Amino acid sequence: MVTSTQSDRVGPEVNRTGIEINPDPTRVVLKPHLSSEPILADDGLLDRILAMTEQDVTAALTSAMSRFANRHPNLVADLENHYRVVAKEAGTLGRLSKNRTLLIGTYYTREFSVEAASLTNPSIVPAPDQNGLEPGALRFIISLRGIGEGHVSSIEFRSGVIDHLGNITMDARSPYAQTGAHEPAVFDKDLFCTMLMEMNAFDDTAASMCLPLPNPFTLEELEDTITAAEGKQAPRHVALPSTKAMEWLATSNYVLVFPPNSELSERVIFPGSPVESHGLEDARFVRFVDDDGAVTYYATYTAYDGSHVLPQLIETKDFVSFRMDTLSGQCAQNKGVALFPRKIDGRFVALSRYDTKNNYVMQSDNIRLWDQSQMIEAPQYSWNLARIGNGGSPLETDAGWLVITHGVGPFRTYSLGAILLDIDDPTKVIGRLKEPLLIASEDEREGYVPNVVYTCGAMIHGSHLVLPYGISDTACRVATLPVDSVLGAMERS
């Protein structure tokens, strides 16, 4: 357990709590290890495993399991899943012993350290379960961006409690990490075709493949259509530009489910589609309350494939099952989409920086389709003159919508600021801080990316603004500030 103190104040308002969440390279998950070649063409490894005697298979499996069993809570199930990936691509392998299927799984599996490089860019929301707390206390969930080998990013979670005085206690972290089970999404054919058009990928080939699909259709039905059109190529090796685009889009939408008895801190949302092959970046979580009072947790994040970025949406009720969808529309571009925590005048509203430089407010009738936006803020002060963006979803106060922002200044220094939006018309900026809310202290300047403080979401509890933030893209800290002092320091429009 790590408990904050009310000391180490820097300036009259910001309370740096002393809490620090550091990366741990021992946090490893299992992922399939497949070459770029089809399984049967890949240097004969599978044939060599199939040629082993059953005695040698048992000995090799026993040795491997003895070294890795205590590192993964669901090792056998993971190996079985990875074997199924190999078997699907290789075609029928006949009846194999349980030990041989598991051994095949071990040879096509590798460990990945999800925090090997850093753990940063946090957001925070009240947890779904608030049972068993002292009066005035609140349980919260912090999402984090773990960065591992090759700068591949994933989404992780931590939890804790803040009491009525603003003291924060972090929960102990599980020693394990796991990636959950993927379940394919179901697609609306008309919307799918519209998104292909936005990608300039809806040509005659795509149209001919979409035509026989039912509405709605599944990923398996699409893959059957693709493999029929391209011969015996597995979906992972499709060749035509149109079919690559269709496969790319379809696999970017899926459901991820974790065991209900797993601990929150074990759950890692790891790249699960081609569009995410180089990472899921900067998740901005929000507790969204619909007009009927129903609560859903959404998060926007940036999917990165090594060349392009794509805004994506996470939807969950319980942080056990997560639905991943692609955002579409001409304003759903680039990084930094952040949803408001409720509808305004019956419409979904979000912050955006789709031109990479200015802050915008978007409005839509569909949470997954964004075509309308209005610029609300441009770089103005020396500390944000190079670029600005939001620091997570707006926070509702009696004075208006409090938005944490970030700005890029000289030497590419990142600082945090704040603006205030009209409660009924969030396109109106009614207040702003002329000076940064938070800048990197001397002991926060060194790291993977120096001179950076960055957040993907804050939370208000009572009179306290709770602000987790990344330090130089290396680790995370937590600060608290009196909400009234932040609002009182603003220059009003």
Describe the structure.
This protein is an alpha+beta fold and 493 residues long. The protein has 3 domains: 28-111, no CATH class; 114-181 and 254-492, Tachylectin-2, Chain A, CATH 2.115.10; 186-251, no CATH class. Helix content is 19%, strand content 34%. It has 9 helices and 31 strands. It has helices spanning 45-50, 54-68, 75-90, 98-107, 189-198, 204-210, 219-229, 241-251, 483-488, and strands at 2-3, 9-10, 14-21, 28-32, 109-113, 118-126, 138-147, 153-162, 168-170, 181-184, 186-187, 217-218, 254-257, 280-289, 295-304, 309-316, 321-326, 338-339, 348-352, 359-364, 372-377, 387-390, 395-397, 400-408, 414-421, 429-432, 453-454, 459-461, 464-471, 475-482, 491-492. The strands form 7 sheets. Strands 2, 3, 27, 28, 29 and 30 form a 6-stranded antiparallel beta sheet that branches. Strands 10-13-17-16-15-14 form a 6-stranded antiparallel beta sheet. Helix 3 (75-90) packs across helix 4 (98-107). The radius of gyration is 24 Å and the shape is globular. The two termini are 44 Å apart. The model is unreliable at 1-12 (pLDDT under 50).
List strands and helices in order, with pairings:
Elements: E1 2-3, E2 9-10, E3 14-21, E4 28-32, H1 45-50, H2 54-68, H3 75-90, H4 98-107, E5 109-113, E6 118-126, E7 138-147, E8 153-162, E9 168-170, E10 181-184, E11 186-187, H5 189-198, H6 204-210, E12 217-218, H7 219-229, H8 241-251, E13 254-257, E14 280-289, E15 295-304, E16 309-316, E17 321-326, E18 338-339, E19 348-352, E20 359-364, E21 372-377, E22 387-390, E23 395-397, E24 400-408, E25 414-421, E26 429-432, E27 453-454, E28 459-461, E29 464-471, E30 475-482, H9 483-488, E31 491-492
Antiparallel strand pairs: 1-9, 2-3, 3-30, 4-5, 6-7, 7-8, 8-9, 10-13, 11-12, 13-17, 14-15, 15-16, 16-17, 18-19, 19-20, 20-21, 22-24, 23-24, 24-25, 25-26, 26-31, 27-29, 28-29, 29-30
Helix pairs in contact: 2-4, 3-4, 7-8
